[in-house]
Design goal:
The chain has 6 helices and 6 strands; from the N terminus they run αααβαββββααβ. It has 172 residues and is of the alpha+beta class. The protein starts with a helix and ends in a 9-residue tail after the last strand.
Length: 172
């Protein structure tokens, strides 16, 4: 089945949607279902989303410092959003914000106490406050509990918001 998917992708990269469509129509009904299911999984996967799907327009950068003796993984588990995971394309993702949000944590190679958290957000609202106020009340309350845990684990943190002025993909 992966060979069929690769053939579709290669034909598409060559710029021929007609060839891809003709190949798809030549498949048996069972093969069509499998290919279609696989393509939906690939399209919906957070690993495969890109500028063609949605472009973030805001980024947050948070510089954090762990308290002495606290390891990143302990903080990370306490930091994860307090919601039930959702399944998208056979991957577990956390459905927390009301808009697409990707968060990346960066740990310096030579320093395990300080790290950066970068969030990429598509914000359809006029400002960040409007976006943050769209979360349901129960999530806001759970977030307060999470912040208390973070205060026990973090020595310091500072946050900055930025407008994204370019978003490029330089590899496929």
């Amino acid at each position: 089945m992966n060979e069929i998917i690769e053939a579709f992708i290669n034909s598409y990269k060559e710029g021929s949607a007609d060839i891809v469509w003709d190949k798809f129509l030549s498949l048996t009904e069972n093969e069509k279902k499998k290919v279609f299911s696989k393509l939906l999984d690939v399209a919906a996967s957070p690993k495969n989303t890109n500028k063609a799907v949605i472009t973030p327009n805001v980024a947050s950068v948070i510089k954090r410092k762990l308290r002495p003796g606290v390891e990143f993984n302990k903080w990370y588990e306490a930091w994860l959003p307090p919601v039930k995971p959702a399944n998208i394309a056979n991957e577990v993702v956390r459905d927390y914000f009301p808009v697409p949000t990707r968060v990346v944590n960066l740990l310096p190679i030579n320093n395990e106490d300080e790290f950066l958290t970068i969030g990429f957000v598509y914000n359809p609202f006029d400002n960040m406050e409007e976006l943050l106020n769209t979360r349901p009340k129960e999530l806001k309350e759970s977030e307060l509990e999470c912040r208390a845990v973070n205060e026990d684990l973090l020595a310091d943190s500072e946050v900055s918001f930025y407008t994204i002025i370019s978003d490029d993909i330089f590899g496929l």
